[in-house]
Design a protein that fits this description.
Elements (H helix, E strand, L loop, with lengths): L1 E3 L2 E3 L9 E7 L3 H9 L1 H4 L9 E7 L7 E6 L5 E12 L3 E9 L5 E14 L2 E12 L5 H5 L1 H19 L12 E12 L3 H9 L1 H4 L10 E8 L6 E8 L4 E12 L3 E10 L2 E14 L5 E12 L7 H16 L3
Protein name: Polyketide cyclase
Family: Belongs to the AHA1 family.
Organism: Nitrospirillum viridazoti CBAmc
Length: about 325
C-alpha cells in the first residue's frame, strides 16, 4: 500500500507519459513569475478557455498552499489543491498538486515543474507535468491536458502582457522613458557573410523573429537601401501580434547600417528607436558586430532591459545561422 496524503491506496497505480508544454510569453520574466505567484493574478488566467477562477489561495513558499478553483460555464467547480515544493524566484517553480473526488479521495496527482527563462521578445515557459493516477477514469481528462494547458497559457500571455503594459489599450497618461545599450558579438565568419545575414531577407529571416513554434510570421518585407523599409510582423501563440517597422537611413556595405524603427504590440505603439550596426574585422576570417541602440519607450511601457536581452538573443541566433 502507498500513502497519499491521508488516503491509503493500492501501489498498482497508473503513470501516463508526462505532459510537456513550452510557450513564449511576450512579457518580462519577472512579470510572468509574478503572474504565478499571486492569487489576484492567477484568478485571471489559471483555467482553460470559457472557465473562470472564482477562488485561489497561494502562498509562494516551500510548503505553502497552491489551490485553485476552476469554474465551468454551467457553474460546476473543479478544485486543484496542493502545495509549493520548490521555488526559485523568476527561474523555477515546482508544485505538488492533486485532484480529489467528491468523497475526498485522491483521483490523481500532478507534479508540476515550471521553468522561466529569457527569450527573444519575452519569457520562455517550459512546463512538465508528471501524473500519478489512482482512478483510471481520469486518464481521459489527463489526455486533454495539452489542449487545456494551451488555452490556459493563451490567457496567461494576455494577462502578463497587460501586467507589463504591453496591450493595445490606451494609456492613462503619456510618457517617454529613454534607454541606450551597446552589444558586441564576434563571429567565425568574414564580414561579407555577416553582411548578407543583415541585408538579405532570406538570410535574415533565419534569425530575425520569434522562436520557431512559438511565433508565426504574418508579414515579411525588406527593401534594403537608403530610404528603404523593412517590416516583420508575427503572432505569438497567445494571440498577441508584434510588428517591427524599420526605415534605413545610412548604409556602407560590409561596414555600417543605421536605421530607425517602431515597435507595436497589437495596435499599441510601444517604442521608437535608432540603431547602428557596425562591422569590424577581428582577425582572419572573423568579424565583430556591434549594435548600439537608443530607444524611447512610450506611454507606460516598461522595458526594464528586455529589449537589450532580446537583441542579445537575436545576435546569438544570427551567429548560429552563419554555421548553416
Amino acid at each position: 500500500m502507498t500513502q497519499v496524503g491521508t488516503q491509503a491506496v493500492d501501489a498498482a497505480v497508473l503513470r501516463p507519459e508526462p505532459v510537456r508544454i513550452s510557450r513564449s510569453v511576450p512579457a518580462r520574466r519577472e512579470t510572468v513569475f509574478k503572474a504565478w505567484s499571486k492569487a489576484e493574478h492567477v484568478k485571471h488566467w489559471f483555467a482553460p478557455a470559457h472557465y473562470t477562477v472564482p477562488h485561489a489561495t497561494i502562498d509562494l513558499r516551500v510548503g505553502g498552499p497552491f489551490e485553485v478553483c476552476m469554474q465551468a460555464p454551467d457553474g460546476t467547480q473543479h478544485w486543484t489543491r496542493g502545495s509549493v515544493a520548490e521555488v526559485t524566484p523568476n527561474q523555477r517553480l515546482v508544485l505538488d498538486l492533486r485532484v480529489d473526488g467528491g468523497d475526498g479521495k485522491v483521483l490523481f496527482t500532478a507534479w508540476t515543474e515550471v521553468t522561466f527563462s529569457d527569450t527573444t521578445c519575452g519569457t520562455q515557459l517550459d512546463i512538465v507535468q508528471t501524473y500519478t493516477v489512482y482512478d483510471p477514469a481520469m486518464l481521459a481528462a489527463i489526455g486533454g491536458a495539452p489542449e487545456g494547458w494551451s488555452q490556459t497559457l493563451d490567457k496567461l500571455a494576455r494577462h502578463a502582457a497587460h501586467m507589463d503594459g504591453r496591450t493595445g489599450e490606451q494609456p492613462a497618461q503619456r510618457s517617454a522613458v529613454h534607454a541606450i545599450f551597446s552589444l558586441e558579438r564576434t563571429y567565425d565568419a568574414p564580414a561579407a557573410r555577416v553582411w548578407r545575414a543583415l541585408s538579405d531577407m532570406e538570410a535574415k529571416s533565419k534569425w530575425f523573429g520569434g522562436d520557431p513554434g512559438q511565433w508565426e510570421s504574418l508579414e515579411r518585407t525588406m527593401d534594403f537601401r537608403v530610404g528603404g523599409t523593412e517590416r516583420a510582423k508575427g503572432r505569438w501563440q497567445g494571440g498577441m501580434t508584434s510588428t517591427f517597422d524599420a526605415h534605413y537611413l545610412d548604409i556602407i556595405p560590409n561596414e555600417r547600417i543605421v536605421y530607425s524603427y517602431v515597435m507595436h504590440l497589437d495596435e499599441r505603439k510601444i517604442s521608437v528607436s535608432l540603431a547602428t550596426m557596425e562591422l569590424k574585422p577581428a582577425g582572419e576570417g572573423r568579424t565583430t558586430l556591434k549594435i548600439t541602440e537608443q530607444g524611447a519607450f512610450l506611454d507606460g511601457y516598461e522595458d526594464n532591459g528586455s529589449r537589450e536581452h532580446g537583441t542579445g538573443f537575436l545576435m546569438d541566433r544570427l551567429g548560429a545561422s552563419l554555421k548553416d
